[in-house]
Write a structure and sequence with these properties.
By secondary structure, the protein is of the alpha/beta class. The chain is about 25% helix and about 20% strand. It contains 11 helices and 15 strands.
Length: about 325
Amino acid sequence: MKAHFKILILLFAFGTVNAQQSEIVGKSPWGPTDEIGTLNMMTESSVLNVLSSIISGKSYDLSVDYFVGMPNFHALGDPEYQYWLTHTPHGTVVDNPNGLGEAMNQKVSYTGDAISMYTHMGTHIDALNHFGLEGKIWNGYTPEKYLGDKGWKKTGAETIPPIIARGVLIDIPASHGELSKNYRISAEDLRIALRKQKVKLAHGDVVLIRTGQARFYEDVNKYLDNYSGISLDAVKWLVEDQQIMLLGADNLSLEAFPPEREDNWVPVHTYLLAQKGVMFIEQMFLEQLAQDKIYEFAFVAASLKLKGASGSPMRPIAIPISSKNE
């Protein structure tokens, strides 16, 4: 990674520490034992409502591939994705690990493999313990009491429920044009795109922001190069004014990188996770949805129940629904 990029990472960390001095962690309106934040907006009634609105059997896979060399912040010390074979057809014949003998192993081939990866790689959801503020995470949980050597005892990835809700794609390049490097998507950009798409947001929506960055996913240097993303004021509009439930985007950190820095500022990550209890999904694939102009859909996703973890791989799908504006 280039030297200037590393310097920006350090500036980001320094700015975060200074900004946190005037901010406080959020307390859940769903009570002192809450661990899932705004996902509490999801109810049996809301799930049934969105599923009953499905108008097509076509589904859209919103996840990216996992492969050796895939993008991640390895310069921060995050481990890269690793894949290796544990068993091969010929190796099984030679080693006879199952005790079935050469003849049977030649007849029935056997392949096994394993992976090692950072939990915040590929399409994944950030749990509420991922970012904190003033020594606490969402709902006032402290590491002194709740962080053990085997992970968090509160808000771990295992607490994230399957998610079924109305999803809305906001295609920024379609209304704004190609985004410049490090472009910060504003609340006005979101409003303009929604008007052009003739879509209105509703309480409890899952909102997915397309920047177009997924087009470069297999070109690591281009994918990570000063990419555009959502700004803090845009996120505040979505969360506080529109009361959305969940966010997602097609870049690596939802917000633009390098991030904005101002007095009394916290990063988008901290605002969402630590202050508002809003989880979000990163590194999504939104190109096919945008190409087909599917702006409203049933969003269906579930993550791995990694106990105590700060994030988990997720494979979301979208199924078109009837428009609320029809």
